[in-house]
Amino acid sequence: MAVKPVIYGQSDRPPRGDYSRAREDYTCDQNFTAYTEDDHDTWRKLYSRQRALLPGLAAQRFIDLLPQLNAAQGIPRFEDINARLLPATGWQLVGVPGLIPEVPFFTLLANRKFPVTDWIRTPAEMDYVVEPDIFHDLFGHVPLLFDRTYADHIQAYGQGALKAHALENKDESCQAAVEHLSRLYWYTIEFGLQREGEDVRAYGAGILSSPGELAHSVQSPEPERLPLTHPQEILRCMASTYKIDSYQSQYFVIENFEALLALTAPDFTPYYRQLALS
Ligand code: PHE
Ligand code: FE
What we know:
Blueprint: H1 37-53, H2 60-65, H3 78-89, E1 92-96, H4 102-110, E2 113-117, H5 134-141, H6 148-170, H7 177-190, E3 193-196, E4 199-202, H8 205-208, H9 213-219, E5 224-227, H10 231-238, E6 250-254, H11 257-263, H12 269-277
Parallel strand pairs: 1-2, 3-6, 5-6
Antiparallel strand pairs: 3-4
Helix pairs in contact: 4-6, 6-7, 6-11
C-alpha cells in the first residue's frame, strides 16, 4: 500500500515530495542520480553562504562538527555520512520524501534513525522554503548528531513522544500531550539557543539553516530570550504556541546539552496533566 503525503499547518499547494516512492515506514532511498548539476550548484551556494555566517552566531560544537558532513562540494550521499555517523554515535540517516506523520517520525528517532528529505529547493527559494528540504534537514540537524549527548537527547525525545502519544490516547488528563511536547521540540531542536560564556549561540536546526534568522536570533534586540533551565520554564515553553512563517519572537536558552538532557529526563506525565488544565 502506498503511503499518503503529509501536510502540517495550512498550505494551498500539495506537498512536493513523491510519496509513491516511500515504504510503509515512510522511508525511501535517496534518489541520488536524480540530482542535476543545478541541484548540486544550489547546494554549494547554500552551504558556502551559510558556513560563512556561522562564526560568532552558531554553537561552537556545531561549527566543529560540520566538516563531518564532508559536503562543501555538492549534495552528499547519505550512505557516505552513515559510514562516519554510525560508528560515532550509532545514528543513521534515512531518506524520506518530505514531512512524515508523527508516529512514524517519532518511531524513527526512538530507533536512532534520522529522516532526511532527499529533494532540494529551487534557486528561487534560496532564502526561504516552505517545507523542510535536504539543506535544512542535513545542514541544520545532522552535524550535532555526531555529538554523543545531543544524539542521546534526540533519541530520548523520540521515545518520550511515543509515550506522549500513547498517554494522550489512554489518559483523559493528558490531553494534547504530543502538541505540548512538540513545542519543546520547536524551541530546542529547531530554534534553540545556548549559552557560551557571556554570549548566546544558536544550536537549533531551523536557525542554523536560515540565512536571516541566525543573526536575528542571536543579536537582534527584538525577540525575547528566556532561560530554559528549570522545570517551570519547560512548562512555560510547552505552553507557548509558535509561528512557522516568520522569525520567532521568543527563544529559549539552555546552558548546554548535558543540562538539556538532564532537564528533560524526568517523566513528563505530570507536566502534561498540568498543561491540560490551563
Ligand atoms: N523524559 C520525558 C518523558 O518521560 C520525554 C522527553 C525526553 C521529553 C527528551 C523531551 C526530551 O516524558
Ligand atoms: Fe527540522
